[in-house]
Design brief:
single chain, Metallo-beta-lactamase, Chain A, eight-stranded mixed sheet, six-stranded mixed sheet, 7 helices, binds fe (ii) ion
Length: 271
């Protein structure tokens, strides 16, 4: 795969549809970029995919749910791989509000003024009722943007973890269990230390507390923005993430390495 590609949606559970794309990273493999539709009484879209694939994303989203039925968009954070169709969805789903944080609203407003009556600010630890269940906002153990929130669905036992628990992969999959344990560990460690380089600098005991908070939730399923659906793999994923602070920090290719990659035929996935 040398270009971003969108794949068909698949059910993680009867209530949750995954809208997957993949973004190739030359020399490192492919990164899943997932959005989700939670079919709660008040339906929730989680993130909005890649801008470059927005047409395909809107088509697939429309095949999962009537956009007019969407009541909430949980925007985990404002990175480009999460906001690709944000403004199209705001226009297409007039009854929808965006769940974000004060910082998230600020970042959205840097792009263009954001309608303030279309946001609902929710801090980590606070909950929202979406008709048939409570969703509790959490700050995941790892993240790359200060506005990041994931959430725990108390009815289904699913943790939506944003960038946390993401992994670089060699080929697409619909279940994280399809990835060999060695590949999953390596891909998760590389992604995590690249995405959250501050992990090497923080107090280990405090980090362990964030890990234990997730362990205490005992999610049955983890739905990361950057990993296929992970059923019954919470202990494994926590074990891999826990090890990251002790790993060697990620060093990205510099200009010399980049030139070598280009000579070897690595293309730019966005051109
Ligand atoms: Fe991110
Ligand atoms: Fe991301």
């Amino acid at each position: 795969m040398d270009m971003p590609a969108i794949f068909d949606h698949y059910p993680a559970t009867p209530e949750v549809e995954v809208l997957p794309s993949y973004f190739p990273i030359p020399g490192f493999g492919i990164l899943p970029v997932n959005a989700f539709v939670l079919k709660s009484a008040e339906p929730v879209l989680v993130d909005t995919g890649l801008w470059a694939l927005s047409d395909g994303f809107m088509d697939r989203l429309s095949s999962v749910i009537d956009l007019g039925d969407l009541r909430w968009l949980w925007l985990t954070h404002n990175d480009q791989d999460h906001i690709g169709s944000l403004h199209r969805i705001i226009e297409a789903a007039p009854g929808l509000k965006v769940i974000t944080t004060f910082l998230g609203l600020g970042k959205m407003s840097l792009f263009r003024p954001f309608p303030l009556d279309r946001v609902f600010l929710l801090n980590p630890g606070q909950s929202i009722d979406v008709g048939d269940r409570k969703l509790t906002s959490i700050r995941p153990p790892t993240y790359d943007a200060p506005e990041t929130t994931g959430f725990y669905d108390h009815k289904s036992g699913i943790l939506f973890s944003s960038d946390c628990f993401g992994a670089l992969m060699s080929k697409p999959a619909v279940n994280a269990a399809e990835i060999s344990s060695g590949d999953l560990r390596d891909g998760l460690v590389t992604w995590t230390k690249a995405d959250s380089p501050w992990l090497h600098m923080i107090d280990r005991d405090l980090f362990t507390k964030t890990i234990n908070y997730v362990r205490g939730l005992s999610p049955m399923i983890i739905l990361s923005s950057h990993l296929p659906a992970a059923h019954g793999m919470t202990d494994t994923l926590l074990q891999y993430v826990s090890a990251v602070p002790e790993e060697k920090p990620f060093i990205a290719p510099d200009q010399q390495a980049f030139m070598s990659m280009l000579k070897m035929g690595a293309g730019n996935p966005v051109t």
